[in-house]
Design brief:
The protein is of the alpha/beta class. It has 12 helices and 14 strands. It has 2 domains: 226 residues, 3-Layer(aba) Sandwich (Aspartate Aminotransferase, domain 2), CATH 3.40.640.10; 124 residues, Aspartate Aminotransferase, domain 1, CATH 3.90.1150.10. The strands form 4 sheets. It has a 7-stranded mixed sheet, sandwiched between helices. Helix 1 runs antiparallel to helix 7 and helix 2 packs parallel to helix 7.
């Protein structure tokens, strides 16, 4: 089976973990500090703050900006539920805006209509590693005085018109095992605002700046040095991994030729064969004029792993409906949820793997 994702764990990662174990410094130590420094450099930001995972990164970032009960946060319904749950954790209300069918990202043209006097922030999600339309979004945020939180969980190394993703607002990243850079589990917040960085550090560690002096309500959202050690090695390979993903996506775009399968290069002509800013966390096609479940079964029988990200949009999830937040018309999101299918694009694919994927997809 060619898996939909495959974490790369080499000898360097193993040695790095053993070195931490031998050091006895296991939690929030020098490896975490080094990873934060290197991550900030990779995103061209002044500060990076490590957390226990991508969800806590979002939660901490929102709290650091003072988002809470009675506030509204505009976001996309087509995302992993953490993007929305993090808003609920603060007591704020998520407000959903539909997406583009060509990028799966939030439709910037519809954001302004969703703004109310209670709107405090916009969480943009750079889904599958493809950057949102940040020029339009930043213009809206600046005119209305809104905070921008970038859910860049899938987009480390991506850029928008030459500017690093994670440097437009407050960036939030995931280092989960399947991500482009992973540490098995972990999160990272990026910012150029010193006061936000300070608050993030306090919130992740029980509200402390000095040990046992708690200046605010905080949480235990720290990252271990064991995880950071893996992330440090992985981050050194970011450029290599990204180039390989882009090459794999380009091959799939060029060679998949099936009228039942719409590739990213065919999405209204707006996603190029190999756009410079895309880091291809997922290679996601649209299955049309045929049954998607049958397509998955056929690909599985051919030894190809697939994934549906995401079959149920956030506004249709049970707990969102129970809160009365799901009664919205989001036709593009709902249509994409019925069509999307992700194919393997990870760096460990061989040329034979790529040829096998193309042959199977073209045979659907």
């Amino acid at each position: 089976m060619i898996p939909i994702s495959k974490p790369y764990i080499g000898e360097e990662e193993k040695r790095a973990v053993l070195e931490v174990l031998d050091s006895g410094m296991l939690v929030q130590g020098p490896r975490v500090a080094e990873l934060e420094n290197n991550w900030a450099k990779s995103c061209a930001t002044q500060y990076a703050i490590a957390t226990s995972n991508g969800t806590t990164a979002l939660h901490v970032a929102l709290l650091a900006h003072g988002i809470g009960s009675g506030d509204e946060v505009i976001t996309t319904p087509f995302t992993f539920i953490a993007s929305v749950n993090s808003i609920l954790y603060t007591g704020a209300r998520p407000v959903f805006v539909d997406i583009h069918s060509d990028s799966f990202n939030i439709n910037a043209e519809q954001i302004e209509a969703a703004i109310t006097p209670r709107t405090k922030a916009i969480i943009v999600v750079h889904l599958f590693g493809y950057p949102c339309d940040m020029n339009k979004i930043m213009d809206i945020a600046n005119r209305h005085g809104l905070v921008i939180i970038e859910d860049a969980a899938q987009a480390i190394g991506a850029d928008y018109q030459g500017k690093a993703i994670g440097s437009f607002g407050t960036g939030c990243f995931s280092l989960y095992a399947t991500k482009n850079v992973m540490s098995a589990e972990g999160g990272m917040i990026t910012t150029n605002d010193e006061s936000i960085a300070r608050r993030c550090r306090m919130i992740r560690a029980h509200g402390m700046e000095r040990r046992y002096y708690h200046d605010m309500l905080g949480y235990n959202f720290r990252l271990s040095d064991l995880h950071a050690a893996i992330g440090l090695v992985q981050l050194q390979r970011l450029q290599e991994f990204t180039q390989k993903r882009r090459a794999n996506a380009s091959y799939l775009n060029t060679h998949i030729q099936n009228p039942k399968v719409i590739t990213p290069s065919q999405f209204n002509g707006k996603v190029e064969t190999n756009p410079a800013g895309h880091v291809w966390h997922q290679y996601t096609v649209r299955i049309v004029n045929t049954d998607r479940d049958q397509a998955i079964k056929s690909l599985t029988n051919s030894g190809i792993g697939t994934g549906i990200f995401y079959p149920v949009p956030a506004h249709q999830q049970n707990h969102i409906r129970e809160l009365g937040l799901g009664d919205v018309s989001l036709p593009v999101t709902e249509k994409m949820a019925e069509q999307v299918l992700s194919l393997p694009v990870h760096p460990q694919l061989s040329q034979t793997d790529l040829e096998t994927i193309v042959e199977a997809v073209n045979s659907l």
